[in-house]
Amino acid sequence: MTRRILFPLTLAAAAALSACASDKPTPRPASPLTVVSSASAASSATKSTPASAAESAPASTTAHAAAPQEPVRAAYSAALDHPGDFPPSPAAQFDPTGTYSYALVEATGDSSPELLLRIDSRGFSPVIVLTIEGGRAVASTDNIIDGQATAGGSFSKIFASREGRGIYQVDGHSIQTAAQSQRFVLQGRSLATDGPAVGFTKDVNPPADQVPLTWFGINDRSGLDTVQGRG
Prior knowledge:
Number of domains: 1
Largest sheet: 11 strands, antiparallel
Order of helices and strands: EHEEHEEEEEEEEEEEE
Number of strands: 15
């Protein structure tokens, strides 16, 4: 499988950009997912897949905030009843398995958390950000990527923000120690980059604000009881 990562930057460029991160650039819109696959769009099947042990973050490294208010929980639960109502960007190409996963995070620093809805796919999976408007869940017009290539070793992994501001996508390769982290923020219903991507060494100096996620199958609603990230 061949793929093009959102906002490709060489690690050298990332290092150079991070040196001037204090001059914060104006956020730009996120590009659509461009994973190449021969599959059609995901079905609206609601069969769940339990999160694997590899996806579950250790308790010592995962920050949590208080449980969401009941109207917010109810709105997201209703959205999980019909995940096919929230398609990814029309440009997204992926190989869906027919299942969905989700994680509840704080990404905007307010009292209403966001729901990350992942269309589980072979290789790379598109992730849509849901927010609450007028008492119901609405989807972002862009999506980010979570997963690993079926061949070649490249990966993208989503993290929450400990500060409760934005969502991180980390891109790298399984046999390389270097990786890069890009923070995305919501602007209305659009996702935009927040500053340049930051290069780092895996397992040595990852950005301190990144918090690993635990993904839940959509039939397991216990994931709606705790906000991951801010706390």
